[in-house]
Amino acid sequence: MGPxxxxxxxxxxxxxxxxxxxxxxxxDEVLEREPNHPEPDVTFSHSAWDRRPFTLRSFxxxxxxxxxxxxxxxxxxTGLQHLGPLLTQVAIDHGVMAANTGVLVxxxxxxxxxxxxxxxxxxxxxxxxxxxxxxxxxxxxxxxxSHFQRQSLDFFTEEKAGVLMTRMTSDIEALTVLFxxxxxxFAVQAMTLVVITVYLLVLNP
Length: 205
Fold this sequence. Notes:
Blueprint: H1 5-11, H2 21-33, H3 56-60, H4 64-81, H5 84-96, H6 101-149, H7 153-158, H8 161-168, H9 170-203
Helix pairs in contact: 4-6, 4-9, 5-6, 6-9, 8-9
């Protein structure tokens, strides 16, 4: 092993290059104990370029099971959040009016339980959709960057650097908000409308 940079600088007479002897000895001991690190054998391969047109369907298709799971969590959360009016009707009609304390207590406990389950479902939904949204955004960033990498030098000469950076940052951040908040809130509001309509028809046919 050749001399270290510190030793080489000291031999060359460079200023402030010489360290105290104690430090040099400790450095030599560390270098002697340092094992040899072989060069890692890495196999590189070219990924196939999917030349099909990029559409929202082709992008979300591989994630269909996760999207269905997210939709199921939205349905469960919405149903539990709006279970109160139905339990209130049961408590009044079959508990208060019928002077049945057992039904009244059961309805109250069910109401409290539905609130707890709705909170748990909301937590799972936010956690699940957040992870799914980040996974989609990561894949989208990789696809956009890979597309830029395949372009010729003329493309980067004609296009403005600021526009390309905006595509990779601001535009994808807007899609992040769409995936994590916009679509989820739309699904929640749509399911809320459906659930409330069903409850109205059940309570007052």
